[in-house]
Structure formats: structure tokens, C-alpha cells
Amino acid sequence: MRVFKLMGVDTVFLTNAAGGLNQDYKVGDVMILKDHINMPGFAGTNPLAGPNDERFGVRFPPMSDAYDRELRRLARAAAADLGYDDFLREGVYCVLGGPAFETIAECRMLQQLGADAVGMSTVHEVLVARHSGLRCFALSLITNRAVMDYESRETANHEEVLETGRRRAQQLQELVSTMVARMESHNNNNNKTC
Ligand SMILES: O=P(O)(O)O[C@@H]1C[C@H](O)[C@@H](CO)O1
Ligand SMILES: Nc1nc2[nH]cnc2c(=O)[nH]1
């Protein structure tokens, strides 16, 4: 993220595979991140720990505005125009350390804490990106449903994650490229009027 910042990048798009905790979510849904829960952060694991490099950002950066409101609006509009409303969601992503998938008790707890999806990435990058003042937009592909029921015989597995990724890859590419094209056209129009 810091190399991007030094290269003059101002906006980053992040994607991940995640387990669906929200009981309304289906495998194959695409969730716009509106917020996150940094579970490793509760135990003191944060990429911003240690001496602060003032060249990039302040010691105590806010995170209440981590996921850019305007980019989220753009994503919803692009998804509607592409006919993706059926599988588009917006919710809270919770990061855990991995690499083990969650226990049933952990999934139940995370759902009660307000998480809609659980994964192993993205939040660390967003923390560093926001510290550097980069605008962030992130999507989770719900690749599997978190197991919440002791009667269930299902288990999370990486094969299902990869398979769901393959199934939605084309539409995710379409969504991101539509957003980028609209951002470029917006920027070009603004430059003309300046
Ligand atoms: O997109 P990420 O890397 O967060 O994907 C998660 C974490 C593991 O790479 C994988 C586990 O199936 O999904
Ligand atoms: N932690 C976690 N990461 C995932 N990545 C894809 N699915 C999952 C999941 O169920 N849990």
C-alpha cells in the first residue's frame, strides 16, 4: 500500500473470499464491505503497531470512514445496471488470523458481534492504506456458508472456495471494470470543467 502511495495511486480496490455468517447470504453472493471488525487487533496485532512513519500518516488514524461511501454508491449503481442486484449485498467483514477455518462456536459469536462475513485478509491492507490516505473499496465473494449448526455435516473447505471463485470470476471482473470505467469518465469530465 505504501509503495502504491509513493507511486501516486489514490484509490485501491480489494477483493477476498469469505464465509457467509449472515443467514440471508447465499454462496456466490458478492458483499460490498461497509465496515470491518479487526479481530487480531483486539489482541494487539495491527500492521500499524510500532514506530509511526509520519511520512505516510498520523499515529492514530480514524477507521470509521475506512470504506469509501462514494465508491460504495458507485458499486451499487454499477451492479444494478449489470443486473447483479440478486446477489449484491453490503455488510461487515470480520478478519481472523486463519489459516484454520472457524469452529461453530466462533461463527455463532462473530454473527452475534455483527459480522456478516468472515475471512483472513483485506483488513490489514485497508489499515495501512487508510493510514496513508488511500481511498478504499472492497468486495467479499461469499464462497461458502459458515457452519453454525451442530447438527450440520458440512465443513468449510478450500475446494469450495476456489470453485465459487471460478463461478463468479467473470461477473466480478465486469463489476470492477464497469466501476473503473465510470470513475475514469467522471475524472475526465471534471478535468474538462476545471
Ligand atoms: O481472498 P482471501 O485470501 O482472503 O481468501 C481466503 C483466505 C484463504 O486464502 C482462503 C481460504 O479458503 O480464502
Ligand atoms: N476465515 C474464513 N476465511 C474464509 N475464506 C473463504 N471462506 C472462509 C471462511 O469460511 N472463513
UniProtKB/TrEMBL annotation:
GO terms for biological process: nucleoside metabolic process. It comes from the Eukaryota. Pathway: Purine metabolism; purine nucleoside salvage. It catalyses: 2'-deoxyguanosine + phosphate = 2-deoxy-alpha-D-ribose 1-phosphate + guanine; guanosine + phosphate = alpha-D-ribose 1-phosphate + guanine; 2'-deoxyinosine + phosphate = 2-deoxy-alpha-D-ribose 1-phosphate + hypoxanthine; inosine + phosphate = alpha-D-ribose 1-phosphate + hypoxanthine. Keywords: Glycosyltransferase, Transferase. InterPro entries: Nucleoside_phosphorylase_d, Nucleoside_phosphorylase_sf, Purine_phosphorylase. It is an enzyme of class 2 (transferase). One of its GO terms (cellular component) is cytoplasm. Its EC number is 2.4.2.1. Residues 2-180 form the Nucleoside phosphorylase domain. One of its GO terms (molecular function) is purine-nucleoside phosphorylase activity. Pfam families: PNP_UDP_1. This is purine-nucleoside phosphorylase. It comes from Liparis tanakae. The gene is PNP_1.
